[in-house]
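Hi support team,

I submitted a single chain yesterday and got back a structure, but I'm not sure I'm reading the token output correctly. Could someone confirm the output below corresponds to the sequence I sent? I've pasted both exactly as they appear in my results page.

Thanks,
R.
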Amino acid sequence: MWLSVQYSWASQLPSGFIEQLIAQNLDPTDMVIAPDGRIFITIKSGKIVIIESGVLVSSVLLNLPVDNFNERGLGHMVLDPNFDANNYYYIYYTVPGMNFNRVSRFTANGNSTLPGTEVVLMELDVLSSTIHNAGDMVFGNDGKLYITTGDGGNPASAQSMSSVLGKVLRINSDGSIPSNNPFFNITTGKNKAIWAIGFRNPFSLDMQVTTGRILLSDVGQETWEEVNDVEAGKNYGWPGIEGPRTNQPLPQNYKDPLFAYQHGTGPDRGCAIVGAAFYHPTSVQFPNEYVGKFYFADYCNGYIKYIDLSSSVVKTFATGISRPLAIMTAPDGSLYYLARAGLGGGSQGDNTSTSNGTLWKVNYAGSGAPFISSQPQSTTAALGDVVSFTVGVSGVQPFFYEWMADGVVISGAISSSYSYTVSQLNDDGRNFTCKISNSLGTIISSAALLTVTSNTRPIPQLTVTLPNGATLYQAGQTLQFTGSALDSEDGPLPISALTWKIDFRHDQHTHPGLSPVSGLGSGFYTIPKIGETADNVWYRVILTATDGQGLTKSVYQDVFPQKIDISLTSMPSNLMLLLDGQTVQTPYTFKSVVGITRSLEAPLTQQLGNTLQSYSSWTEASLARQFVFDTPTQNKNFTASYQAVPIGNGNGLIGEYRNTLSQTATVTNGFENQINLSRIDPTIDFNWAVGSPSPQINSEYFTIRWTGELLPQFSEIYRFYLSTDDGGRLWVDDILLVDKWIPQGLTEWSGPLIVQAGQRYRVKVEYFELAGNAAAKLQWSSARTPKQVIPQSQLFASPITGTEPIGPDNSITVYPQPVEKELFISLNSAKTKSREFAILDILGKIIMRGEWDTNYGIDVRDLAPGIYFLKTDSGNNKFVKK
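Hi R., thanks for writing in. Yes, this is the structure output for that exact sequence:
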């Protein structure tokens, strides 16, 4: 068999850079550096280990129970900006036995943590599976804590404002939520913490201290990996959009990735983006071309690249890394990275348990002389084993290698690795070193000791079977495994010498299926039905036998899935459906593993050209509009039927704009002044900032009254939303749904109403603006209407009934007729003076009186229904109007 040392290659760096192996035998997930130079590394199983003065010390900062299964566990860590004073640090971990992640604050005490100091800041939503946790954290320049959350295996969560999953969250350091978060006023509870939406698994993020800019690395699914520039309130598209947007529907506030690359094996491709670090140290060590750049890594293809944010140019910094995971800039200008690694049969995925993770330090040496970044490692071998010694070197290439055994040059051993077959026991105790030279110098490695034992390795055997002798698995089935091992010295090994492990392979990386378990001669594993929905998957069952002398040998058997084709169609064609939360356009065919649980949804409504299509049914009448199904054993077709919905021909609402003189006048009697501007506004969707709606209207102190009718397209409960800065009121069907006649920043209020399709409803919106910004927006939503600004097609400027010039000189208009709430008197000719008016009942008794000029509204809501008369004059003629 082949036996290789754990760290066979150092990375390849640009000329002048060197790297040094700092720590090994880790199961890392993230790292931070303290102000005093200590490095804290989070270990997936719940520990935080410490690097002090370049050495991994025995102290453990924290040892916390976590749910350490699949991608769960202790994920990420961040230090308080005032850590050197308050010793606060924050972690993101999966709570054991609870099925959700938690953000907690602890208090450090030297190289340990004070007992009982956990303060729970936030508990996230229940997870749909054991993948896509994300959880990286950073403090912004504003002192707020930014937290990434994965979709937890449910892509739909990323777009839901009722879930904190698939988001970037923003909270205060004490766990409270800042009131200036973008969705604070339209969400409830912890959802108020949402800062940005539409992420799949944003595993890493960092902030540029000079600008406060936050970038994150979002791990993609099938095709794209993304670097995203995080901004308040933005939507980054997942699951409807992965990578740069092409022709997918445009979500509100959508923002394309800053940079994206596709899956593959080429130098500019990969499969899982991890790591996020700006190079902005206290003391700059790297040449200027590397300063201020954003660094990221690809877990599968083993490189670190950097982006020049000023030019968007992307360049390679390091290659040949054994599964890079996290990147960090140190104050002294060096750069650290974690390589998670993994040994034979183990995972190449971002979440697999390993004991072979490493921490590396990259410095800029400048001279280019050889520098040994990883020394050859001592090893124990049996007769017949092939051993390999490897040295990692940085500096100016080319390098010239010369291996020696006990100081004697080995002929032909002139590469960075030397391998040979152990054939005799007297090889025991030999020391192997390597001399490396380039044009600028020479260096000799430390010695690696070879220990040779006469013991032979055990021979394990395993058998994996599926129900009914099947050769391909179906999700939900139980596979059986049986194994044994024979050792030349020990004979048949006991089951205590057997260790089982099952890896779930997906594309180029692996998720753990069954964590290592010992002491079994046989067992079973039920293949999950929920989780990864991709079809390029399989399982690897691994058996490792260990003999009495500690020598091991592993064998494995792969089990592949049964797949079928599923076709999605619609009537009419070219509509959008949601498959596992992702938008696909019909007709669409895909492969699916038999038994895997999938979700399918037909949107209630969607645009197709100039028509609005409303969901009718699936061809299988028993199916709900949104349903979950287990992939069948035979090819399957699902067809969604839609019907066109009539669209109105509205022209908008009448807007009457009035200037006022002061805050008091605006709030108390802002509709008593003359109308300065009257027009038909197609929609109510205005953000005037510090400007004004029109040259005739002040930039401060004005009111608007919009009136007309609206036409719902569906018979159901609609929710009407009024967003204003400052005050606003909303009536629909003469029902007051929003009454927030108060000075306020831009705030959304809403109210529900049951309406009938095809029936027009009276609508009135009143608005006032004081000093500062001005904005007004009228929206609606229903079960079949996504939240949107009420479109012009569904708004109608109601005719003013009964409007007519009156008086002998036709100089006055009185409207509406009949009147329900407010009677308006409008002077059509130039103003001469204020006029008196009186309202009389049918018996001639004066009910109310007052003065009016130019344009005036008389509130008659307190009058009992009946016939009344208006008595006034036009300046030249007196008249009475019924």
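A quick pointer for reading it: The chain is about 0% helix and 50% strand. Let us know if anything else looks off.

Best,
Support desk
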